[in-house]
Structure formats: structure tokens, C-alpha cells
From TrEMBL:
Keyword Cytoplasm carried by entry: no
Source organism of this protein record: Brachybacterium hainanense
A Pfam match: Abhydrolase_3
Entry's Gene Ontology molecular function annotations: hydrolase activity
Protein name: Alpha/beta hydrolase
Highest taxon of source: Bacteria
Keywords in alphabetical order: Hydrolase
Domain (Alpha/beta hydrolase fold-3) ranges: 73-285
Length: 310
């Protein structure tokens, strides 16, 4: 990075937080900062669960004023598995619906530390399976119309859900979009294999210390941190995964691991496209829709959706 640019970008860095202590305050702040819904979409709150009536998961459905695609985007929000919810992500999901012309369904999965792994993943898998088996619940005609999408920890959950759907049998998603996803569990600059962790893990939007806090809250049992359902890049078998678009942010400590996951998927025979947004920080999809990284990302997403399923 240009040495003159870093001090400017550091102005946008979040203050240092001990997420293990401060996560309730961060949750409240995120909800407070979320803009009020606008007239660009209609929202409907549902609860979706298994056919047997077991646990139901809240889902907020965003319908843009002009629906010009049959695809339905099943969205898993970011926030380190600890923060974020359908309320704090309402502005981002409204933008997603508007920019893609798709119905967007945001899943309000359970959060750590109150509900550590695998609770959140189970919620996301339960909703994905139910929607893929009965796509009409979200207005889709065919399971091919359902696209899994997630940002950061949500990208991690989308990747893990795809692996679970394959391993447990039954229906599976045909496409997934992973936005600057977490794909590994080691974000310590001293031990991580990724250069982006060492170069961008301090002083920017997301720090290594913050990521390590998130992992500890989500996975208090250290023995689980290399589980492929936590670190998809550790999976022994990545075959038979959905057609995948991975979008990374250049100035993000997760950049290299997201791109490495794309390489691993491609090596296993999957159709993959990886796109890096230059000059972008982690979390950029929540910026206003006129921000350059947001416009660039949606241009790439639009082209991916236009290609259709494999």
C-alpha cells in the first residue's frame, strides 16, 4: 500500500475494542446506526423452519420495487458470528435488492457467545435446506433460482452450508456468492500463512485482534477451530460445490484467505470466479450504494447472476 495512503485510511478504522467484553455495546451501536427503511423495497418478516415444526428462524424478505430477475438471494450477514442482525443489515439488504433486482432474504441466525458454534450454522443450514426444498416459500419457481450469499462471517456460513448440503445429501444450492469471506481460523500475524493478515491486520477496518476475539467467542473449544465447518479451506474434499463468485477487498486482512479458497475450489473442479476490489476495506458492502467499491462489486455480481446456474 502507498505509505501516504495508510494514515488516511486509518481515519476510517474502528477504535480498538475488546469484542469479548464490548460485543453487547457494538450490537446496540450497529442497530442505532442502521438507516430507517426506505420506499425502495417492501419488507416482510417470516419464520422459516423444518417441515416437522422444529426450530424456526426469523427471515426478513426484501422485495425491490422492480423485480427483474427470478433469482432469490439467501443472505447470511457478517459480524464475526457475534454482531449483526436483520435490523442492522436492513440498509445493506435494501441496497442489494435494489442493485440486483432480486428478492433478498436475510437470515437472523443465532449469535455467539450466547449461542456458540454450531448454533448459527445450524440455523443457516436449516433455512437453506427448507428454501431449496420448497423455493416457492420465497417466491422462486425452481431451486436453481436460490443463490446463497454472505459477507465476512456470513460468507463463511454460506461456504459451510454448501459443504453441509453436499455431505448430508438431498438438494443443494447451484450458486454461491462469498463477499470477503472468512475461510480459515488463524488470524494471528505471527502464525497465519497469509500475507494480508500481516500487512492489513492493524489500523484498518478489521484487525487481527478483533478477528481473534470473534473466533474465541464463536469457538470457545479450541479443538473445533480447524473443523471444515469453521474453516472451509481445511476441508479434505471441496468437490461438487456450487458455482462460486468470491469478491475480496484489497486492504482487508481476509483478502488472501478468500482468494486461496477460490483457488482450492477451482483445483477441486468447481466453477469459480475471484474478483478483488482494489483500494477497498473490509465490510464495504454496507457502504452507501453510490460508493465506488459497492458499485464495482454489484457490477460483478450482476454479471455472475446473468450467467445463470451451471
Amino acid at each position: 500500500m502507498n505509505r501516504l495512503l495508510r494514515p488516511v485510511l486509518q481515519l476510517f478504522a474502528a477504535p480498538h475494542l475488546d469484542m469479548r467484553r464490548d460485543y453487547p455495546r457494538v450490537r446496540r451501536l450497529q442497530r442505532g446506526l442502521a438507516a430507517s427503511p426506505t420506499a425502495r423495497f417492501r419488507a416482510l418478516d417470516l419464520r422459516i423452519g423444518d417441515a416437522d415444526g422444529s426450530r424456526e428462524v426469523p427471515v426478513r424478505v426484501f422485495r425491490p420495487r422492480s423485480v427483474h430477475r427470478e433469482d432469490v438471494l439467501l443472505f447470511f450477514h457478517g459480524g464475526g458470528w457475534v454482531t449483526g442482525d436483520i435490523s442492522s443489515y436492513t440498509p445493506a439488504c435494501a441496497t442489494m435488492a435494489e442493485q440486483t433486482g432480486c428478492v433478498v432474504a436475510s437470515v437472523d441466525y443465532r449469535l455467539a457467545p450466547e449461542h456458540p458454534f454450531p448454533a448459527g450454522l445450524e440455523d443457516c443450514w436449516r433455512v437453506a435446506r427448507a428454501i431449496l426444498e420448497e423455493p416457492w416459500r420465497l417466491g422462486a419457481s425452481h431451486l436453481e433460482d436460490i443463490v446463497l450469499i454472505g459477507d465476512s462471517a456470513g460468507g463463511n456460513l454460506a461456504a459451510a452450508v454448501s459443504l453441509l448440503l453436499r455431505d448430508l445429501g438431498g438438494v443443494a444450492a447451484r450458486r454461491q456468492i462469498l463477499l470477503y469471506p472468512v475461510t480459515g481460523s488463524d488470524h494471528d500475524p505471527a502464525t497465519s500463512p497469509y500475507r494480508s493478515v500481516r500487512e492489513h491486520g492493524t489500523g484498518l477496518r478489521l484487525t487481527s485482534a478483533e478477528m481473534q476475539d470473534y473466533v474465541e467467542l464463536y469457538l470457545p473449544d479450541e479443538a473445533l477451530r480447524e473443523d471444515p465447518m469453521v474453516a472451509p479451506i481445511r476441508a479434505d474434499d471441496l468437490a461438487h460445490q456450487p458455482k462460486t463468485l468470491i469478491i475480496t477487498a484489497e486492504l482487508d486482512l481476509l483478502c488472501d484467505e478468500g482468494e486461496a479458497y477460490g483457488e482450492a475450489l477451482a483445483a477441486a473442479g468447481n466453477a469459480v470466479r475471484v474478483h478483488r476490489v482494489d483500494g477497498a476495506l473490509h465490510g464495504f458492502i454496507t457502504l452507501p450504494r453510490f460508493a465506488r467499491p459497492v458499485r464495482e462489486a454489484y457490477g460483478v455480481i450482476d454479471a455472475f447472476l446473468a450467467e445463470g446456474p451451471p
